[in-house]
Write a structure and sequence with these properties.
By secondary structure, the chain is of the alpha+beta class.
């Protein structure tokens, strides 16, 4: 920096001296590397203004080409020295997608004479006695200490902190010599104290030196291994809230690509989205999710161009491991996603198999409208899981296919929608028809991409409830092999294992799904349902109550909670939960059937009969799952009619029939020979 600098800069307890190139805190020096000092000075000189990363790098490394990670490391070091953090910035604020801003009030102090002091735009004059006092003190009583400290091991270690390859650091100044023997003799006591201090500081200096050498040679401190990761929601910088789905889609795609790496534990999308807009710090988030690394960044879409800035951070230390900016046409976005995932895999130094490497290779372009329709179908409609929104999702997936018939994920989207529409919970389509459409879509996806784990999982779901037991297990295992981090594949497989009576395996698979997606309400509700079928009623009700605490309008949680309470002897609670499910669902047939069951078990036969009549009337106007009718007759104790409707459920291969071996709902029928025959025909083990 120029020796003609006439100002010092003060902010908070700090004073920054550009001429002597030092930072003081309450008069005490704060060690900084040369480039960290240059970074701070550049920000302070532009205080209150956003300094873009590229501009900042040009100021700090003029004429040199360096990686952005060098700047990130300087910012991290400065924040530590200033007592700052990324999420509670008193001094250096991150401006996502752009750069950094020095946000503290800065006072410019002229060197010598009357100082001009600028505070929040107002100017006043003062005598620089404070500066003179500090300088005089350093030159008299503290002269020996400052002269000896310059070449100390600690200062040398600080100077050894990482610098970009190919850049040379200025040579250190030669140590000053004593002015005369008399003054040297007079400083003997101070010299002995200083030597004692150096003996104490030497081990620390050595540790700092080793640390600095390691980071210079290896690019990061030791013991910053990353074996688990969360991709936080990428921030939408498009200036258009309607583009949120695009940023969410980019987040999900990056999660999906990273999830293909078996050695890396990747948190699923639902739990990642839980932190959208959060003010929690990275260590807090990492602690809650039990991960080492965090990926965060921004997405900016302008017309047919998309720009993504992404960085990888070691959460516990806030150490920036890697950062990069990418810009592509929207049609090349699939290749872009794979490129980012490959870069992150390299940075975390995780082992990838040849098959995983192949799945992360560049992929073909996709028509922009096709990709846009897919993202809207998946992130605006599918996630809401209602009959109306599933219908809208199907329309968008079909539009994707018309634009680009070879875009495999759109077929998986169709399969997921049809599987949901045929379930007992939604029962908008007869299950055989729903699963036929789902299987066709899943098979088409696999014809395009045989390694698409989500398609294998959707096909396994179809085969499970069509009672093709061996084929279902093969598909689930293949899905998990191809994408070990796909939480829903583990959850679906847990359901399969429970229907087969493999209780402990089922709960282990469900626990794995929860580890990968701890904030997924659908996975949490399913886990409560599985615990109920395992007859662990107290655990099941506790799990479902936690879901309701997170979402008081989750009618499926109340649906399951109703019959779990009933079979645990908590009949009043069962009625209340089932009535709530009916209310929240808009009197869906499946919720009505459960309410009729609970009314009957609670001895409220008249109310159970009213529910039955409502279902019979609905059955004249729309599809009603036979399982709902069977539930009410079981509650009323009418076994003959219960078997009539279970037989209808068998003929249309209702989802509920697969649960006959373990469901407590049919316990009152188990001693009847007709029940054993029904179980035998389904192919379940006796």
């Amino acid at each position: 920096m120029s020796g003609q600098e006439k100002h010092l800069y003060e902010f908070g307890p700090f004073r920054l001296d550009p001429v002597k190139r030092r930072l003081l805190r309450d008069g005490e020096p704060v060690p900084l590397t040369p480039k960290a000092f240059d970074t701070l000075l550049a920000l302070v000189r532009q205080s209150g203004k956003t300094v873009e990363k590229d501009d900042l790098m040009r100021r700090v490394w003029p004429g040199a080409v360096v990686e952005e990670n060098n700047l990130n490391q300087n910012i991290t070091a400065l924040r530590r020295s200033l007592g700052d953090s990324r999420h509670e910035s008193q001094y250096i604020a991150t401006i996502p997608g752009l750069g950094y801003r020095f946000v503290a009030d800065v006072r410019e102090v002229e060197v010598g004479g009357a100082d001009v002091l600028v505070v929040e735009g107002q100017t006043r004059t003062r005598i620089a006695a404070e500066e003179e006092s500090r300088e005089g003190s350093a030159e008299t009583g503290g002269a020996a200490a400052s002269q000896t400290q310059a070449p100390s091991a600690l200062a040398a270690a600080a100077e050894a902190a990482p610098e970009p390859a190919g850049l040379r650091r200025p040579a250190p100044a030669a140590p000053a010599l004593p002015e005369d023997k008399t003054r040297a003799v007079n400083r003997k006591p101070a010299g002995r104290a200083l030597r004692r201090s150096l003996l104490i500081l030497a081990p620390l200096a050595l540790a700092v030196l080793v640390y600095a050498i390691f980071t210079r040679e290896n690019g990061r401190p030791p013991q910053l291994a990353v074996s688990s990761i969360v991709v936080l929601p990428l921030e939408n910088l498009s200036g258009d809230p309607a583009q949120e789905y695009f940023a969410d889609g980019m987040t999900d795609a990056l999660i999906g690509d990273l999830a293909r790496i078996g050695e890396l534990r990747v948190i699923s999308r639902t739990s990642s989205m839980h932190y959208k807009g959060t003010k929690k710090s990275l260590p807090e988030i990492a602690g809650e999710l039990k991960v080492d690394g965090v990926v965060e960044g921004t997405v900016q879409r302008s017309g047919e161009r998309v720009r993504i800035r992404v960085q990888l951070i070691h959460a516990a230390t806030d150490w920036h491991l890697w950062a990069e900016t990418y810009e592509r046409d929207v049609r090349d976005v699939l290749d872009l996603q794979s490129e980012i995932a490959r870069a992150i895999a390299r940075e975390v130094q995780i082992k990838t198999t040849p098959a995983e490497q192949a799945r992360l290779t560049p992929r073909r372009p996709v028509a922009p409208k096709a990709y846009d329709d897919y993202l809207q179908g998946r992130y605006l409609y599918w996630n809401k899981r209602t009959e109306e929104n599933l219908g809208k999702a199907i329309e968008h997936f079909q539009s994707t296919i018309r634009e680009d018939p070879n875009y495999a994920p759109a077929y998986v989207g169709l399969a997921d929608c049809y599987n949901a529409l045929g379930s007992v919970m939604i029962s908008a389509l007869p299950p055989l028809e729903a699963r036929r459409r789902a299987a066709e879509a899943a098979v088409k996806a696999l014809e395009i991409d045989p390694a698409l784990a989500e398609a294998h999982s959707a096909l396994g779901h179809d085969k499970h409830f069509n009672w093709d037991w061996e084929a279902a297990e093969r598909e689930f295992n293949l899905a998990i092999e191809l994408n070990p981090n796909y939480a829903h594949a583990h959850s679906f497989y847990a359901g399969y294992l429970m229907t087969r009576g493999r209780v402990e395996e089922s709960l282990a698979a469900s626990n794995r799904a929860r580890e990968l997606d701890p904030f997924s309400l659908s996975i949490s509700v399913h886990r409560g349902f599985l615990l109920g079928n395992a007859r662990r009623y107290d655990e099941a009700s506790e799990q479902l109550r936690r879901v309701i605490a997170m979402d008081p309008n989750h009618y499926q949680a109340y649906w399951f909670l109703g019959h779990i309470y009933a079979f645990n002897g908590q009949l009043d609670e069962a009625v209340a939960a089932s009535e709530k499910a009916v209310s929240l669902s808009g009197r869906e047939p499946s919720a009505l059937g459960m309410l009729g069951l609970v009314y009957g078990l609670a001895g409220r036969k008249g109310e159970a009969t009213k529910v039955l009549n409502e279902l019979l009337e609905l059955n004249e106007r729309r599809y009603v799952t036979p399982a709902a009718m069977a539930f009410v007759y079981i509650g009323l104790g009418d076994k003959d009619q219960a078997f009539v409707w279970l037989e209808k459920a068998y003929r249309e291969r209702s989802y509920f029939i697969a649960w006959l071996k373990v469901s407590p709902i049919v316990d009152s029928l188990r001693s009847d020979p007709r029940f054993a025959e029904l179980v035998r025909r389904v192919g379940l083990p006796q």
